[in-house]
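pasting for the record
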Amino acid sequence: MSKKSVVKFWRALSGGFSLVEMLVVISVIALLMGIILPALSRAKSAARQTICQSQLRQWGLAFEIYAGENDGFSPHIDGLDRQGDNKPVLPKDWADYFGWIDLLPPLMGEKRWRDHKPWGYPGERTIFQCPMARLGPGDDYTYRPRRNGFFSYAMNSCLELDENCWHHPQDTKWPMPSFLKTSLIKMPSRVILLFDQLLDPRFGYDGNKVYGDAGKHCGSYPKSFSSRHARPGGLLGGFILYCDYHIEWKASVWKPDWPDDLEVPPREDADWYPYP
């Protein structure tokens, strides 16, 4: 075989591309990546949303089991997270030993929150945290979330208003019981039990201002609701576990007439109070 024939044969085998052909191939690959990557991102987000809903269902089942075993009473809203490194010394704070984050996990084969140590509290990829939740910049917090623990789910603090909480002078039934009896809830399908809680301080008060206590406590109010789960079209919202143990997605829980710095909802609000 001549030298010229060998060169032709090698070129045929190597399948060389011209510059134009290379540019066409690169463009096609870029187009495919532009189509595939967003689809993968949406699939990943959908999977995380499914996990979040599944975890809330597990918490709902634990709430239901606990109430069934304890004469219809719910666990306490708050836990020892409000005490910091100090143990409660006042009788009014002893109820924090019976917070939902300590009483419910054993029903799911999990360790109680208070049995963990600083720097070792449940973080990402645990049933305590929404898989979509992410910590924000450290300087924006009023506490140390990695050391003291953080909560991307919160129980509705309006389910109990005792001497530890807010006193509504217009409420003739105050104080409400420290441990709520579920049979007292007038509209369980409407009353919020557990919800996606804000974890990134930059998006506090429905995205209106920085909220340094984001994720600090396991019981909170509407200001702590987080919109982090996207629906088709890009609208963000959060999941809510209601007192009848069903789950819904909502874009927001904030009412149009509420001020930006609202702490506690009006006493007549039927979404937050067991018997408004």
